[in-house]
Amino acid sequence: MIDFIAVQQALELLFTSVTPWLVVIPGILIGLVFGSIPGLQISMAMAIFLPLTLHMNFVMSMLFLTAIFTGGSFGGGVTAILMNIPGTSSALATAFDGYPMARQGRHNEALGLALGSSTFGCGLGYIVLFALIQPISILVLKLGPSEMFAVTVWGLTLIASLRGDHMSKGIISGVFGLLLGTVGYNELGTARGTLEIELLLDGIPAVPAMMGMFAASELFNLLNAKFIVEDEEQRNVSRPKIFQGFKESLRFPIVNSRGSMLGIMIGAVPGVGSSVANLLSYMETKRRDKDPDSFGHGNPKGVMASESANSSSEAGSMATLLALGIPGGGATAVMLAVFAMNNITGGPTFIREQTDVVYAIIFANFAQVFLLAIIGLLTIPLLASVVKVPVRMLVPSVMALAIFGSYGLTGSMAGPYTVLVFACLGYVMKKYNYSVPGLVIGILLGKMAESELLHSYQISGGQISYVFSRPVTLFIVVLLLLSIGYQPIMKFVKARWSHRKS
Amino acid sequence: MKNRSLYSELSLVSFFLILTCWYLFDSYKASASTENLLLILPSASVVILLCLWVVLRTCFNFRKQKEVVSEEEQPKPEKKVSVLAAMALLAGYVLSMDWIGFDVATFLFMAALMFLQGERRLVWLGGFSFGFAFLVSLFFEYMIPYPMPMLLGREMIERLI
After folding, report:
1. Fewer beta carbons under 10 A from the terminal one: N or C of chain A?
2. What would the DSSP string read from start to end of A271-340?
């Protein structure tokens, strides 16, 4: 499976000159800055800096862009922890426990944990990619629309477990979100729910909705506080504590490994990627934990599960890009532009004929993992200083940033309007125990779920028996049922057991 | 207080219910084909059924519940006012930015929200709001590829230079 001659050639490609490495540190820093600013996406950073790659060769261009990708994957978690703004959908689950940790004055630890798990996930992801790039590409080719729909529904059904105490409200939120996600034109060219408003023809913008639901609605709750962290002593930014958090994350190899493996597998599925991977990893960790009720209230394992999954999904999406030439998301789509600019077509032929280049990209990412750890540890204290800013300044600043960011994402007033509507809705939903993440996941997955279901329907001719001829779909459906049923069944069995004992 | 809480909760469920029914009707009106309603019809049915279930359960629990929720658990009245005022400010900000420009709207919004939260120092109200609004507006104006409605912004700086 591993071509050792190509390995040697890849090392020569990377280490005969220092030039390719000159772009890595700036790339990571650009990624960190863009990831840390709400509303600026990794793909946006890559697109903005894409013209610079015109002066670089293919390997150097890929090193630069993957460095932005690596830095940005972690940067998105910083705002999720400190401001409850998951800058990207891949950092959604990081906010679930990261932000409560920050509010408890454990922001240093949370940031250290996030960095540790990101490093672990990214490293493991590329190791797996190095060893299994060919089998992964074959597996991805076997995924059809029914499998994609099953993965999407799996991601969505997790919302029920997210609010174990209010399951019906959780399901309402998720399915209502799914409906909102289908607003606008569908694949057949039919426009639904647009109220004849032009801005809604493309649907409800998912990331601005997420910013409104998470950030702005949370900021309303902060209005009467003086600081995010009330206790003055806990407000300090402590490098040793950040480092302690970093070390702490490495003490949970199972949580990190599970998250990383899920991240690689889901990340390789085009379109689904890291936005579902971090949620699946979070829910799996919660489900397997001895104290699942502590999740959502500042459990460090929640941060680790999410960050390891979203970082490793980078390797998964790279597998699809390199082996099939299909971009898994916005960031890899920009990388595809570099392929085109260099007259290279990704796919099995590319892997077979240019294995040394593929390995060089993978090896460079190993080095980026170490650089991310060092640069992250150096820059986090600066980023964590947000907790020292008084809330009366922080709230208007973050709200304004979210508004600007949403405009930047949509290029029209649709973004700011979406933030406004969903900020108010998010505040009311939280108050009455409806699942805010559920609604957001629904909006994120709505269009894709509808499109995959439609394709499955067209392929099968409406015959339900088609599902039984798809073993992977059946496997995912079984996993889905297990993940929903496990918790209530175990609760019931435990209750019966204790009842019998007494 | 108890009644108000019940009505608020019922209003939210009704909002989901009405919006879902309307969306289902609108989708049906747009096209009654199976392809169009493949996901929408079952999803809307689930939401409608669950909303009805929540309405019933909420009313049932309300009747059963004898003790009034303690005053500590209720949000303080002044907090409610401040949240509503902040929502109104945010709405004003978003609706006005297309007219008066992102930079000026941001400056006014920030100063007003800081004032609402108790900031009375003019240097901070004016200085911080202006500095932040101006820098962020300029940064985004340079970074994003779309035109942004601005009153001052890049054009003014370029003219000054």
Report:
1. C
2. TTHHHHHHHHHHHHHHHHSS-GGGTTS--HHHHHHHHHHHHHHHHHHHHHHHHH---SSHHHHHHHHHHH
